[in-house]
Each structure stands twice: as structure tokens, then as C-alpha cells.
């Protein structure tokens, strides 16, 4: 591991935020305007020259074609994103101290959520940091009560894990941090697990974190598993959509496909749905949903079934439900997966429409950025309906809750599409 120690020594100054020599990345002249406006991701094709390139994760200055400063960020020659810009030249963060920047960005992120009324007595589970939207590329943080779950998808964050944890623990509303990794995206960023383990030690939790944390969403109680649950442990992005859909559920029979911990079902049951049937292939998810229904006194109207969703739908009698929610996992991780994913979306949604009474409502979702950015999701729904001899009318199209902020120069971070349709 001699090469590893040399790499760590090379990174020591930049990780500590000292005034060591810094590399310089000059971007192609006609690309500079994009980054000056705030686009944080400098792709390989935008780089003209690199002077004194540091080891992956090291700090670099970024300049335009004339050598005028644009800002500074972190370098990664093995990544599609050669530089993740962390600060622009006019921001007063020219000393390039990553630890100082982390604290400043987290304070700004918390202030944005406060402006949205988060946290509140009714909601204590929300997204605190949304990657590029909060100008911390590769980092998402969900806050569950006083437990922050940080999900890393970039090498620069793995190399500075302790600094990120310290900055989170410095926030007044955070007592503990759970560190989780998006391993597929990290590997695309050149991450090697053995490097991370020797650099920052093992272990996923800082602070007192029990197996489950009880949180509130719009007044409903949920038990969240920050260490074991999917993603960060809970899907805060659907909060507003759950509240919206519940408005139509009084006295109705509702089907919740890919229900996970029962968010849509519980919101519908509280709103007066006569019956809510949740389906998920994960035993962990079904157990969590059952526990959440009991926690809220809604077990009498909520039923959860462990099953493959397609198999369940094929066995379901046509027209069995008044309303359906279809919220599958990410089926198109990238653009190259779109053709295959579209076929799968069409199959699932077609079967879901078949289970719906004519004149019923359906909320169909995709959390795949590739599908959202393609603009073909509604077209797919129309084709799925036609194949079933049904017709659809789009009533409303929404995205993620307001705490999932998006930078105007990085609209590609829009990933969630939720379409409310009337199915005839």
C-alpha cells in the first residue's frame, strides 16, 4: 500500500485547506460562460489544459480561456466530471478551504429549508442537502429528527468524510450522522473501497443512533431505519405528492404499488380511504409499512402484501380499485437504459391501469432522471393505456417536494416525475 500512503501525503495539504500549490484547470473559451453562471460540473470535454494536476480529490482553480478566474473546486481525472466546482471567484471563498466551505454551504442549505417551514411540528423528515442544488456536488443529506443521513456519490466526499461529518454535527439541529454510499455512482467516480477504509477508518455512524428513529411527515408518524433502509431510509421527495393524492381518497379503495414503508397508503387511510392495499417485493419494506400503520392506528384500513408487483397485478381482477399509485424504483439508471426501462414502465403501468375502475385516478411516478429528462413519460403512459384499451387524461404533473432544490444552471438534477391521470 506504499502508493496509497504517497497519495494520502499528496492530498494532505488540500484536505486540510492549507495554502499549498494548487493545480489550474483552464476550460475551453466558449464553455466558460456556462461555469461562470454556476454550472458546477466541468465535463472532460470542457477542459482545455490542466497545469499541476493534483491527485484525485485535490483542489484546483478553474479559469476561462484568457486565464481569468472562474472559481475553484475538486479535481478527478478518472471521473466524467473532471472538476466539481465548489465556489465561484466572486464569493469570497478564494482561500480554498474545503472545511470552511462545507460549514458555509450547510448553513445556507439549512436556511433554505427554514424558509420552507422545515422542520416543523408536523414534519421532521426532510432533505437538508440536495447535491448540486445546494452547491455540494455528490452529497445528499436527509434529516430525520436530529439524525442526519449523508449519502455520498463522489470521491472528494469520501476523502473528506470526517470534515463533512464535523460540519453536519456543528449544525444546531444535528446530534448524529449516518454515512451511506451510492456505490454504483462512486465507482464511476473512481472510488476504491480499500483506499477509503485506510484513509478515514471504518464505521457508518457518529453519535447515538438507535435502530429506528421516529419522525413526522404531515402529522403522520413513521419509523425510519437510517442504517438499514433503502437509500437514506425514507423517501422525503414524495411528501407533497402523498398529501395531494390523499385528497381524492375518502371512501375509496386504493392500491399502493411499490409501497415501501407505506407513505401513500397511510396518507390515504388517514384521509378516509375505505381500504388501502400496499404491495412491495421487500420483506423489510412490508414489515416497516405494517409497523407504521400500527403506529398511527390505521391497521384497520391498511393491508400490505409481499409480492412481485407484476405477478400481483396479473392475478388482480380488472377494475378492483378506485385509485392506484405506481411508484417503482429507478428503472433507467442512465440514458442507455431508456429503451429497456420504457418497456418495463409500459408493462407495469398498463397492468396498473387494468386494475383500476374506469373513471378512476392513478398517480404514476418515475424517479429515473433519464426518463424525466427524456420528456417521454406521459407518452409512455398514453401508449400503456392504449394497449389496455383504456384512455387517459393528464390532470397534473409534479416533481419532488420543495426541499429537493435544483440549481437553475443544473436542471438535469430534476429526477422525479409524478403524473396524476384520469383513466377511462
TrEMBL record:
A GO term for molecular function: methyltransferase activity
Any one GO cellular component localisation term in the record: cytoplasm
SUPFAM superfamilies reported in the protein's UniProt record: PUA domain-like (SSF88697), S-adenosyl-L-methionine-dependent methyltransferases (SSF53335)
Main location: cytoplasm
CDD domains: AdoMet_MTases, PUA_RlmI, RlmI_M_like
Gene3D superfamilies reported in the protein's UniProt record: PUA domain, RNA methyltransferase domain (HRMD) like, Vaccinia Virus protein VP39
UniProt key word S-adenosyl-L-methionine: yes
Family note: Belongs to the methyltransferase superfamily. RlmI family.
Protein name according to UniProt: PUA domain-containing protein
Amino acid at each position: 500500500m506504499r502508493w496509497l500512503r504517497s497519495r494520502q501525503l499528496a492530498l494532505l495539504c488540500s484536505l486540510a485547506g492549507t495554502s499549498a500549490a494548487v493545480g489550474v484547470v483552464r476550460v475551453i473559451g466558449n464553455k466558460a460562460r456556462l461555469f461562470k453562471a454556476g454550472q458546477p460540473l466541468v465535463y472532460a470535454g470542457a477542459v482545455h489544459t490542466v497545469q499541476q494536476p493534483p491527485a484525485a480529490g485535490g483542489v484546483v482553480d478553474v479559469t476561462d480561456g484568457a486565464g481569468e478566474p472562474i472559481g475553484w473546486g475538486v479535481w478527478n481525472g478518472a471521473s466524467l466530471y473532471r472538476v466539481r466546482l465548489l465556489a465561484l471567484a466572486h464569493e469570497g471563498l478564494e482561500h480554498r478551504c474545503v472545511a470552511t466551505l462545507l460549514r458555509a454551504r450547510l448553513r445556507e442549505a439549512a436556511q433554505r429549508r427554514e424558509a420552507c417551514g422545515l422542520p416543523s411540528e408536523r414534519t421532521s423528515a426532510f432533505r437538508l442537502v440536495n447535491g448540486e442544488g445546494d452547491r455540494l456536488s455528490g452529497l445528499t443529506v436527509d434529516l430525520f429528527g436530529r439524525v442526519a443521513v449523508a449519502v455520498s456519490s463522489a470521491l472528494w466526499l469520501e476523502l473528506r468524510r470526517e470534515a463533512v461529518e464535523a460540519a453536519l454535527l456543528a449544525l444546531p439541529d444535528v446530534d448524529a450522522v449516518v454515512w451511506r454510499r451510492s456505490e454504483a455512482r462512486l465507482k464511476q467516480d473512481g472510488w476504491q473501497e480499500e483506499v477509503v477504509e485506510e484513509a478515514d477508518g471504518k464505521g457508518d455512524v457518529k453519535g447515538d443512533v438507535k435502530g429506528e428513529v421516529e419522525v413526522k411527515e404531515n402529522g403522520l408518524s413513521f419509523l425510519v431505519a437510517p442504517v438499514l433502509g433503502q437509500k437514506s431510509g425514507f423517501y422525503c421527495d414524495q411528501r407533497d405528492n402523498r398529501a395531494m393524492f390523499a385528497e381524492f381518497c375518502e371512501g375509496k379503495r386504493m392500491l399502493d404499488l411499490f409501497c415501501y414503508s407505506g407513505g401513500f397508503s397511510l396518507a390515504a387511510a388517514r384521509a378516509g380511504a375505505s381500504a388501502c392495499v400496499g404491495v412491495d417485493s421487500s420483506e423489510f419494506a412490508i414489515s416497516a409499512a405494517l409497523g407504521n400503520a400500527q403506529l398511527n392506528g390505521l391497521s384497520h384500513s391498511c393491508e400490505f402484501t409481499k409480492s412481485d408487483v407484476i405477478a400481483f397485478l396479473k392475478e388482480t381482477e380488472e377494475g378492483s380499485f378506485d385509485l392506484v399509485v405506481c411508484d417503482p424504483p429507478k428503472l433507467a439508471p442512465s440514458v442507455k437504459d431508456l429503451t429497456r426501462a420504457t418497456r418495463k414502465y409500459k408493462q407495469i403501468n398498463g397492468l396498473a391501469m387494468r386494475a383500476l375502475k374506469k373513471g378512476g385516478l392513478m398517480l404514476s411516478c418515475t424517479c429515473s432522471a433519464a426518463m424525466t429528462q427524456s420528456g417521454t413519460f406521459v407518452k409512455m403512459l398514453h401508449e400503456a393505456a392504449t394497449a389496455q384499451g383504456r384512455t387517459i387524461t393528464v390532470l397534473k404533473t409534479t416533481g419532488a417536494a420543495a426541499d429537493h432544490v435544483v440549481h437553475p444552471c443544473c436542471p438535469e438534477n430534476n429526477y422525479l416525475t409524478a403524473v396524476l391521470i384520469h383513466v377511462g
